[in-house]
Each structure stands twice: as structure tokens, then as C-alpha cells.
Amino acid sequence: xxxxxxxxxxxxxxxxxxxxxxxxxxxxxxxxxxxxxxxxxxxxxxxxxxxxxxxxxxxxxxxxxxxxxxxxxxxxxxxxxxxxxxxxxxxxxxxxxxxxxxxxxxxxxxxxxxxxxxxxxxxxxxxxxxxxxxxxxxxxxxxxxxxxxxxxxxxxxxxxxxxxxxxxxxxxxxxxxxxxxxxxxxxxxxxxxxxxxxxxxxxxxxxxxxxxxxxxxxxxxxxxxxxxxxxxxxxxxxxxxxxxxxxxxxxxxxxxxxx
Length: 259
Ligand SMILES: Nc1ncnc2c1ncn2[C@@H]1O[C@H](COP(=O)(O)OP(=O)(O)OP(=O)(O)O)[C@@H](O)[C@H]1O
What we know:
Elements (H helix, E strand, L loop, with lengths): L5 E12 L2 E13 L4 E5 L6 H8 L7 E6 L4 H6 L3 E4 L11 H11 L4 H14 L15 H13 L5 E5 L7 H18 L2 E6 L2 H7 L2 E6 L4 E7 L14 H19 L2
Parallel strand pairs: 3-7, 3-8, 5-6, 6-7
Antiparallel strand pairs: 1-2, 1-4, 8-9
Helix pairs in contact: 3-4, 3-5, 4-5, 7-8
Bound molecules: adenosine-5'-triphosphate.
The site of adenosine-5'-triphosphate has 13 residues, from strand 1, strand 2 and helix 1.
């Protein structure tokens, strides 16, 4: 067996605030394997974003251990092990779509022709070929979110950390992006950690669904999905899908009950 891509052992993070300590994460233990698509679902404040930020070295845990690709999050960050996609697309309005995707490559010192090739490749991957010279405001919200995914993919990181990337989009656009994201995951075999509030989104996308509950933020259930890798959208009407969705809902309810 290969080592997990992300391994958390009794991970805890307590924020000291003026109102006293906030236990954002408490004793979280989880292994994410290579090629997994893991969704984190739970009510507001259960620590989903904090967990993702620990993986990305944007927060420092106060207890336990976490490794990314077998090393510390800091070393993984320096090795550009992951791309991070935020809730809002976060594109610079004064740069074109191509310019936005190019920015991290410029910072990392890639040569100009390598930059060009990478920009074209990731624009193709997210089906935005031809939009390189447009500015963000000329694109719909869904297209902007795809551009921000392209930016996270541009330097070929094996891990994609996505914090509610489609939360602000309407349902039809979200369905379409979910489908595209699954195809992209299938093509590239990346490991994806994905935060969401939506049960159907979590069940549709994931190989593993991590249910969390707040106060203190912890994992209450980990569901290994029996669904096949290839998933047309209408898989959501099948009994298998509905059964998993029920289990997630039950887990969320139980978490609320003792919160
Ligand atoms: N920098 C901080 N300082 C103090 N408390 C914080 C900080 N960041 C997060 N928290 C608290 O930690 C808890 C977990 O927050 P987190 O953002 O990880 O939750 P979440 O599950 O991602 O929520 P949401 O679904 O609303 O995004 C919350 O109670 C939050 O208020």
C-alpha cells in the first residue's frame, strides 16, 4: 500500500478569542489516498475550511499531526504540492483570463513558452479555450470559477484543495461544473479535497464523504462511496445514490443533536 496523500492524526486547532477558546478542530483523524475525491460536509462553523487551511499551511494546528505527501504542510507548500481554489473566483480584474492563470507561473519563474503551453493546456481542460484574452468581467460566474480552477491546475500539482468553489452559482451551472470537475478528475487522476454544504454535490462528486459537526469541530462519519467512477448526472435518481444521501443527512442530523 502506498502512503496516504494527506494524513491527519488527532489534529486539533483551538483559536484563542476574546470570548474564550474556539475548538475549530478536535482530534480529527483521516487518511486521504491518492486519486481520492473527498468531500467535507457539515454545518457552518464545523471546521471544514480550517481543516483545508491546515492542509495548505495557512493555519497552524495546536495539536496532533498532519502530513501532505508524507511531509509537513509547509514543505508541501514549498514543493507546490497543491492548488487551492477559493469560494470566490478571486481573479484580478485588471488581468486577462490568460494573465490570471499565468500569474503563479510568472512568480515561480517558468519560461515564457512554458507559460504559454501551460495556459493553453489548462484552458482546454476547463473548456475555456479561446477566452484567454477576455477580462474576468466579460465572463459569467461559472466561467470565472472555471478560470480559477485552471489557475490552480496550471503548475501541475497532484492535489487540488477546493473550498466551496461552486457555492455562489445557480443549480444548473453548478450541475454542469460538477460534471466537468468529475471528468477533469478522471482524466488527471488528481487527489481532490472539496468543501461543500450540499448533500447532492458531495454524494455526486466523492469517493469518500467526510461528515463533520461543530463545537468542537470533529468528524462524525466517513462514507466510502460505492458509486462507479463514471457518473452521469442522472445517477442522482438511483436508489444507491439516494441511500448514500440519506446516510449523509442522518450524520448531519446526529451532529446537530449533540452540538
Ligand atoms: N482566525 C480565526 N479566529 C478565531 N476563530 C476562528 C478563526 N477562523 C475560524 N474560526 C472559528 O472556527 C470555527 C470553524 O470555522 P471554519 O471556517 O473552519 O468552519 P466551516 O465549517 O468552514 O464554516 P462555513 O461552512 O461557514 O464556511 C468557527 O467557529 C469559526 O468562527
